[in-house]
Amino acid sequence: MQTIDSLGPLRMVVDTLRADHVGIYGNPRQPTPNIDALAREGHWFTRAYAQSGWTLPSMTSLLTGLYPHVHRVGRAPFNESAFGRLEHSRVTMAEALKAKGYSTGGFVNNTFMAPEFGLDQGFDTYDYQGATNDQHRTAEDTMVAANAWLSQHKGPVFLLVHVMEPHMDYAPPQATRGTYTGDGVPLVPLPFASPMQIEEKDAGGIPAPAVVEYIRQLYDEEILATDQALSSLFDVLRSRGNWDNTLVVVTSDHGEEFWDHGGFEHGHSLLGFLTRIPLIMAGGLAEQRAPVKSVVQHVDVFHTLLLAAGVGLPPETSGVDLRDTKAIPEQMALSENTLYGPPRLSMVDRDYRLEMNLEEMGGAVYRVLPDGRERRVGGAAQQEQGLRLEGGIRAVRGGLMPVDTVTGPSVPSVEAFQQLKALGYIEGGPEPTDPADPEESETSLPGVANPPGG
After folding, report:
1. Residue 213 neighbours by CB under 8 Å, 6+ apart
2. How far is Cα 61 from Cα 69, in angstroms, rounded to an integer?
3. Cα separation of 306 and 65, whole Å?
4. Which residues does residue 367 pair with via DSSP β-bridges, in sequence order?
5. Short-list 191, 190, 211, CA closest to 199
6. CB 450 within 8 A of CB 404
7. pLDDT for 87-142, tens place per residue?
8. 352-357 and 344-348: which strand pairing?
9. DSSP class of 135
10. SS3 sequence, 293-323?
């Protein structure tokens, strides 16, 4: 296997980018021409899954190679304002590559990427700008900052870029507004921020099909803006003259539901629409083989990039090497930790997915269709496949206990509290006061308990 010894791995993460809304994954509107072109230079995984259905635990797994039940960075299952922080003893990808001589830079915009959560470990430059639904640094401005950083570092680099456009609110910029929705009267108020803005719904609370499609078109206009911004970074990477020693990864932290199973947005469940994400590998070190139908997951990306860089794997990490796509073993993908409601677990293989509600200790089984969509099954198939996939969960986790959070801040700071509340992640409660030193303020999370079962 060839290893990276020059430019090194780059990674772009698009917040809330659902796999089937990427052109190369089957979106007929094709709002990602630049991402699609990059994918055709390497390969893309049609059955890639995130380790969770919302940002904090998902990104922590992506950056550490640890499942959520191992890193325990997420929302406390029984305390809505308590979030875990990454333990300092855990090794992030940035730390591992920095020890190998890499310059490390991160340009991130989601509040759950705030330094208080610990994901800045190992970055020489960690350019974090918190966000609310309607105010965040644009993908275009993020690329300007990332490209400027790249121009200052000529040796081996690891660059993480995380952009927010496909996350609600939906308010496409002028450059892409109307590309798919047209210039007529909007079918929903803009910016679109909540289903409560839609007056007419059926008995199940689902808007008319034309309205749902309009919202998905708005979503695609946001994705198109992201794709246009990413093209400038792709151009800079190619111009550096190190393309043969570059591995570029494009992925997402989670997807989005548009009433596919009666729900909307993300964080409430672990449906395939939320956990199945795009995963593209390109650059001179990427194998020219596409598409790849193996079931893979975010922890595999951590595993692959460290091996490609010639770096040893930290303890307790999981994953398989994705560089030789013909040798990827048949495996299941585990997702866990929900943002809202009871704790859940999900295990998926090439044919079926089990989702368990740990409060009720019950579950549902879904048949996974070739295009990634899911159809719930019952009867003997539910019993047989459910028991088999539950066995897979137990084999990986050792049981069915909900993810407890590590010692950390209930809410890291006043600013983070306000941003999380604006994003809809906190229902209410008193605002915290800023501690003099976040490191000294860490206390055990109140109200977190482990229920029986597993």
Report:
1. none
2. 10
3. 10
4. 352, 375
5. 211
6. yes
7. 999 999 999 999 999 999 999 999 889 898 999 999 999 999 987 777 889 999 99
8. antiparallel
9. -
10. EEEEEHHHHHHHHHHHCCCCCCCCCCCCCCC
Token pair of 307 as six digits: 């091996």
- Residue 330 Ramachandran class (φ > 0 left, ψ -120 to 50 alpha, else beta): beta
- pTM value is 0.89
| Residue tagged 């997402």 (tokens) | 252
Interaxial angle between packed helices 33-41 and 209-239, expressed in degrees from 0 to 180 and rounded to the nearest 10: 50
Look-up: residue for tokens 């049609």?
A: 46
**Total count of residues recorded for the chain:** 454
CA 167 from centre of chain: 11
Q: Could you give the CA distance from residue 255 to residue 111 in angstroms, rounded to a whole number?
A: 17
DSSP label of 228 = H
Residue 270 near residue 335 (C-beta atoms within 8 A): yes
CB count within 10 Å of CB 38 equals: 26
Greatest alpha-carbon span in the chain:
61
- Extract the tokens encoding 305: 């990039």
CA 57 from centroid of its chain's CA atoms:
9
Residues 6+ apart with CB under 8 A from 167: 15, 16, 110, 131, 133, 136
Q: Angle CA(47)–CA(276)–CA(330) in degrees, nearest 5?
A: 35
Q: Where are the beta strands (DSSP E) in 277-393?
A: 279-282, 292-297, 333-336, 344-348, 352-357, 362-368, 374-377
Q: Tell me the C-alpha distance between 276 and 372, whole Å.
A: 8
**Who's near 266: CB < 8 A, 6+ residues apart?**
16, 53, 54, 254, 255, 256, 257, 274, 339
**Per-residue DSSP letter, 1:** -
The one-letter amino acid at 133: N
Model pLDDT for residues 391-430, shown as the tens digit of each residue: 999 999 999 988 877 655 455 555 665 666 666 665 544 4
Q: What six digits make up the tokens of 63?
A: 């950056």
